[in-house]
Amino acid sequence: MSLPPTSPGPAAGSDAVRREARQKAAGRARYAAEHTPPGCLHAAPVPATIARGRVTAVHADEILARPGVHAVLSHEDAPRLGDADDTTLALLQDDRVPHRGWYVALVVADTPENARAAADDLRVDYAPEEHDAGPAEGHPRLYTPEKANGGYPAVRERGDFDTAFADSAVRVDATYTMTALHNHPMEPHASTAWWTDGDLTVHDSSQGSTTVRGVLARLFGLPERRITVDSVHVGGGFGSKGTPRPQVVLAVMAALHTGRPVKLALPRPHLAAVVGHRAPTVQRVRIGADAHGVIRALAHEVTTQTSTVKEFVEQAAVPARTMYTSPHSRTTHRVVALDVPTPSWMRAPGEASGMYALESAMDELAVATGLDPVELRLRNEPDTEPDSGRPFSSRNLAACLREGARRFGWEDRDPRPGVRRSGGRLTGTGVAAATYPYLLSPSTATTHAAPDGTYVVRLNATDIGTGARTVLAQIAADALRAPLDAVRVEIGSSALPDAPLAGGSSGTSSWGWAVHRACTALVERLGALSGPLPPEGVTAGGDTSEEAEKKSPYARHAFGAHFAEVEVDTATGEVRVSRLLGVFAAGRILNPRTARSQFIGGMTMGIGMALTEGSTLDREFGGFVERDLASYHVPVSADVPSLEAHWLDEDDPHLNPMGSKGIGEIGIVGTAAALANAVHHAVGVRLRDLPLTPDRLLPHLPD
Questions:
Q1: Which residues belong to the active site?
Q2: Which helix (H) or strand (E) holds 477?
Q3: Cβ contacts of residue 231 below 8 Å, gap of 6+?
Q4: For the whole model, what pTM was predicted?
Q5: DSSP string covering 367-432, please?
Q6: Distance of CA 208 to the CA centre of its chain
Q7: Which of 211, 456, 500, 520 is buried most deeply by CB count within 10 Å?
């Protein structure tokens, strides 16, 4: 048989429109909570109202007497679960309350309104115990963990930092703080579950339903083949849906208990306590440099917190092991377990928080040495990755800085702080670098050729709003040498070939390689056929487990540079972002349309991180105060009047067949530091505590 017809041109790299765009705009895309099987019941969880202690009584009889209420589950009668690797999922298994907001009961009723009302009215008696909600800094129980998130060693030392720092001609020693941050995806965490003859079906709002299936199999003692988890459309996650969360376990438990389908959507005020958050950090950065600004000593020491339920340590000091020349280095993490909600992944964990502190310290070093901030960074470009000594597969940070400076008009900047004033507004500009590691996970995929000349690509990838369907179709079309509109992509179900979750900016690289391999294998099979396609078509598979598990001899990272201009109102203390520009080196860009969307989405989140998003932990009661979008302020369109994302054409042959790196998270990494540096340039005062809200700025502003 002849090979497939030649495509009219490369699909990857083109500005293809998202395949599901019209479906979503028309409201036809169905999310987890929009599936309503016949006889479906509705569940509402009951959060603990104490910071620590025990449940002594659940007055279920009062609620069960209500019309429409079908069940009240608690530790007294909930189904028993198997061992959970993730202890945040050991729900309703005992009377312990490890923190405020921990779920202690579940009400199941005929309507969501009845379920919520009954959950609100359920009386639960407690035996409160003395609790400890911090703060982490200076806490007597601080300890050094073995590993930080991602498996990184918690401590790394090279050379003799103390001596080199003391002997440096120029020294910076500064401490930066960040409050807790929350993911707040537009779609709340939701699940719909039902059992049929011992088989389990779940629609879950998740970044990876393969993982959800595996966890449910262990918790409920089922073979994975008897569980199907669908996550066809997911309305954002930003890390909070990266692993199973309480709603899916509780929905399955309720469905098992009642024998009916059950739907559960978590209320937004619950999310801060049960789906993870970026933990608050205190970060001390010390940099010692010679008179020319070349770094000799660099220390980044992070103090943070976790819960008593599960250890999670954000790897905020890890980027300092990659970024700059540093022959003498110390990077450490210390943590304390408190009676507070468990932190978890939030977009660009480690890099987002750590690079804020590092890049702010670099700006302080530029001031101390009298160097331009861009020039300072260029002078400290390493030849190899400082921590590992491995060569970079590609490192175009310098090119990003130069191109960003050109586009932004950086050369016209007056370096003096606090001098650009127009009426009641002070104007300043700032710059920061960004990095994010290239990550790859094992994935499988299949591709099927039909006699009518069309192709179907199948794998359990998840599209969380990033355009995965579109980009995977582009990869497949090129590998098949077929028109893009001849390729259909099926994703979002654990019934499809296993694939990793959408997280760590690794999705396209991991899934795309498997798709490329399956399509390449299919082309070979089709080329070997001597006659027409059989009526059933031809299928080929691809598996990248072997490649993903190999350790690369190269240090592989994406890089970027952020340039910001802000205006500070001297009367109100309000900071307005007038310009924000990012230039990135992230391998081959497979779809400019979806790439730009991801870049500017990350940059917008960085604006929130720097200026508006902050969360207060009430230490007396052990819970977060800002628990809705009225009090937790995320940026809106009016906050980003000029937002530009550009990229370099980067050819990196040491990645995958597409030559792509992840782009979902690098957009947020340098944004907060660039804005903080711009605020310093505007007002002439260095503020080191995020977010930079008016109350923090007002005491430092001129009349």
A1: 665
A2: helix 468-480
A3: 32, 203, 204, 205, 206, 207, 208, 209, 212, 462, 492, 493
A4: 0.96
A5: HHHT--HHHHHHHT--SS-TTT-PPBS---HHHHHHHHHHHHTGGG---STT--EETTEEEEEEEE
A6: 13
A7: 500
